[in-house]
């Protein structure tokens, strides 16, 4: 059971709105969308709709137009994060709303920080309502804002702004001066900006509670000057002065490190309100200074120590409610992944430690896996993040751990693995990590994900690489995935290059008589690829597969597991009328006929299927008639002695290949093999196949066969038993349902 439960009805409805947006809208003259009709949306629901559109990547200049209808769709907390929205579309769709918060981080489409501020400041409602604004990653273009001659066009007109994020921007000292003049500013993030001086912070010393200044690479202040500024911030509760430890050299950040050392040692009189300090990445700080800081701050709730070498300090374990980011244990690493999701340097560091800590894990950790998937989503193009994250996923999902986690979590995890494979197709170790994680019967059989995409990615990799261990994993994954695809998807996969690769593997193993998992998986993949796929069966023949399979059939005469897979594929060819001529070889058929005496019912079954298909068409038989007569006689004599195997031996996408074999005019040997086959699968999975019988017309065929005066009593008996099973199943269920085609095993 999925402990997360089903998706909320509200979310499902919003998903459907997003999916059907084209049908629900008209286009304005400028190309933007307008809802044809809409009720008055609850305000929270409007925020959710915008968030959904942003998350799904469908928000742009066209679709954002639906929010111009401020009477029906009222926004308060708006996010257009990473969406391609232009300045004009932003002004028309979002600025008329009474916004409380706006996240415009990393927006593409030419929208600048000046465009956002000008639009918001030009709205009489937003000037009063706006409290939170994120401009992360934008070009601020402050000169354009200064050139705006409008009375209300400046940042200063947003008098109620409490939170501002201008990290990863071209923020300058002059702009910081203006920002710090905001009368109610409580939270400020200037990380990764070009600021060199922090004296402006003194302007907001009575309001600033949260200051984030990660990686200020151009900061140019002495330790004493920095400490003086911070000593003025008496209401500051959270200070983030962390550093990118991958990017710094020995001389970088020395002044800031000295200031932090003094801060740690200085006692609670400096920053008396501080309850949260992040100094991750700062490698020059001492354990003694940290101990003094923690012991003197009884109200300390969080301290960031990742990549400092200080997270093993014993004083930390004495504070039970203190949250720590570090590498000393899994709790610290999880906190780092949670806290630093957007910071690649810290994500990489945390994942490396997580990999080591989870190498021998035996307990399911869904919360940890969710964090790993989250950081992969936050850094979709980072090879370093994905390389370690995919290794962590393997640790967290192998040995049956995946089965104990929510299905929806495993599904999203597999989607991220596929994204990694698609984004980094030539990185062997990353591909190996993904294949290792995917090599799970539970994941491949029971977890919903895009199996066609997965098959395509694995096949593409398989076509270009020779490493034996990875080939074995890739073939294993493909052999299961292809059985899960629709016939339309199978048709797109069944290309010569795949057959040639798989056949080359079979030939390589057969030449030295090897029996291993690679051979078995390759044979299974070829079998499934040709299942009810005439074009694929023809491709197989054109790639000289038939000649190879004849050799394999003879070489592995004492190996039923190999023979079953070879005969299964030959069965697929025999089902295609226009390809039956390729099997009309006397030596081949005599060898297959001899297999009716094999000790294994699986081998006898598939040998019988080939013979039944070929002997069913008198007009297509080109060999000696005496051989056909012998086949029909021995087929009947063999089938009537078969007992059902205890385990499932075969499954079918449809019963279409059986239709010509169940005609009253067919010889009894052909009919008997067909009804035995149908009886087998119906008895093993009555619920599924009884409906297939009805839907595909086999019920009427079996009734006609049973009623025909010339039908052999053995065939009548089995036909009646099948009909009884089907009637009982339909009676027990009391309803008719749609059917999903099954697959051959």
TrEMBL record:
The keyword DNA-binding does not apply. InterPro entries: ARM-like, ARM-type_fold, LRR_dom_sf, ZER1-like_C, Zyg-11_UBL_adapter. Pfam families: ZER1-like_2nd. One of its GO terms (cellular component) is Cul2-RING ubiquitin ligase complex. Coiled coil: none annotated. The keyword ATP-binding does not apply. It comes from the Eukaryota. SUPFAM superfamilies: ARM repeat, RNI-like. Transmembrane segments: none annotated. Keywords: Ubl conjugation pathway. Residues 376-727 form the Protein zer-1 homolog-like C-terminal domain. Belongs to the zyg-11 family. PANTHER family: PTHR12904, ZYG-11 FAMILY MEMBER B, CELL CYCLE REGULATOR (PTHR12904:SF22). This is Protein zyg-11 homolog isoform X2.
């Amino acid at each position: 059971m999925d402990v997360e439960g089903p998706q909320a009805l509200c979310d499902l409805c919003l998903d459907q709105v997003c999916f059907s947006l084209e049908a629900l809208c008209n286009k304005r003259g400028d190309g933007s969308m307008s809802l044809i009709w809409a009720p008055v949306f609850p305000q929270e629901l409007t925020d959710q709709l915008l968030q959904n559109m942003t998350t799904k990547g469908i928000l742009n200049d066209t679709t954002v137009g639906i929010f111009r209808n401020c009477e029906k769709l009222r926004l308060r907390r708006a996010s257009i994060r990473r969406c391609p929205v232009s300045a004009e579309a932003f002004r028309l769709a979002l600025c008329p709303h009474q916004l409380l918060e706006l996240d415009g981080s990393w927006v593409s489409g030419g929208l600048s920080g000046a465009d956002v501020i000008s639009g918001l400041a030009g709205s009489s409602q937003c000037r009063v309502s706006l409290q939170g604004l994120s401009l992360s990653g934008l070009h601020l273009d402050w000169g354009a804002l200064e050139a705006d001659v409008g009375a209300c066009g400046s940042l200063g007109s947003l008098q109620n702004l409490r939170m501002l994020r201008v990290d990863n921007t071209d923020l300058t000292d002059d702009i910081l001066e203006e920002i710090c003049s905001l009368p109610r500013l409580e939270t400020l993030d200037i990380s990764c900006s070009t600021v060199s001086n922090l004296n402006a912070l003194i302007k907001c010393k009575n309001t600033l509670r949260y200051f984030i200044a990660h990686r200020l690479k151009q900061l140019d202040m002495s330790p004493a000057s920095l400490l003086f500024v911070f000593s003025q911030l008496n209401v500051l509760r959270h200070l983030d002065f962390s550093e990118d430890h991958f990017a710094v050299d020995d001389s970088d950040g020395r002044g800031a490190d000295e200031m932090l050392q003094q801060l740690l040692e200085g006692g609670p009189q400096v920053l008396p309100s501080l309850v949260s300090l992040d100094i991750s990445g700062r490698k020059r700080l001492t354990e003694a200074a940290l101990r003094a800081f923690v012991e003197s701050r009884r109200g300390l709730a969080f301290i960031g120590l990742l990549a400092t070498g200080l997270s093993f300090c014993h004083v930390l374990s004495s504070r039970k409610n203190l949250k720590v980011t570090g590498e000393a244990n899994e709790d610290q690493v999880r906190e780092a992944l949670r806290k630093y999701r957007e910071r690649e340097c810290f994500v990489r560091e945390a994942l490396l430690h997580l990999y080591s800590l989870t190498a021998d894990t035996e307990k399911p950790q869904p919360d940890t896996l969710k964090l790993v998937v989250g950081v992969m989503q936050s850094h979709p193009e980072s090879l370093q993040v994905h390389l370690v994250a995919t290794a962590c996923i393997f640790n967290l999902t192998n040995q049956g751990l995946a089965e104990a986690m929510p299905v929806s979590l495993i599904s999203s995890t597999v989607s991220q693995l596929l994204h990694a494979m698609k984004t980094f197709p030539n990185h062997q170790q990353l591909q190996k990590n993904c294949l290792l994680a995917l090599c799970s019967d539970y994941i491949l059989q029971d977890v919903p994900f895009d199996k066609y995409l997965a098959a395509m990615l694995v096949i593409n990799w398989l076509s270009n690489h020779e490493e034996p261990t990875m080939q074995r994993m890739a073939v294993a994954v493909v052999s299961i995935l292809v059985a899960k695809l629709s016939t339309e998807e199978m048709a797109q996969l069944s290309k010569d290059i795949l057959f040639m690769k798989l056949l080359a593997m079979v030939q390589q193993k057969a030449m030295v008589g090897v029996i291993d998992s690679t051979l078995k998986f390759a044979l299974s993949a070829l079998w499934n690829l040709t299942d009810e796929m005439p074009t694929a069966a023809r491709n197989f023949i054109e790639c000289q597969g038939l000649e190879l399979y004849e050799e394999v059939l003879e070489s592995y005469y004492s190996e039923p597991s190999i023979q079953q897979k070879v005969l299964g594929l030959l069965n697929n060819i025999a089902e295609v009328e226009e390809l039956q001529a390729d099997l009309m070889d006397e030596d081949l058929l005599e060898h297959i006929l001899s297999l009716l005496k094999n000790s294994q019912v699986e081998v006898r079954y598939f040998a019988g299927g080939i013979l039944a298909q070929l002997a069913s068409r008198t007009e297509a038989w080109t060999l000696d008639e005496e051989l056909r007569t012998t086949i029909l006689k021995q087929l009947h004599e063999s089938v009537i002695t078969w007992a059902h195997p205890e385990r499932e031996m075969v499954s079918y996408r449809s019963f279409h290949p059986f239709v010509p074999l169940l005609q009253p005019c067919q010889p009894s040997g052909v009919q008997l093999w067909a009804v035995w086959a149908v009886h087998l699968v119906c008895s093993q999975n009555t619920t599924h196949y009884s409906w297939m019988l009805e839907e595909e017309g086999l019920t009427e065929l079996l009734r006609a066969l049973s009623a025909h005066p010339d039908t052999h009593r053995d065939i009548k008996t089995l036909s009646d038993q099948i009909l009884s099973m089907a009637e009982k199943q339909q009676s027990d269920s009391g309803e008719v349902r749609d059917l999903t085609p099954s697959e051959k095993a």
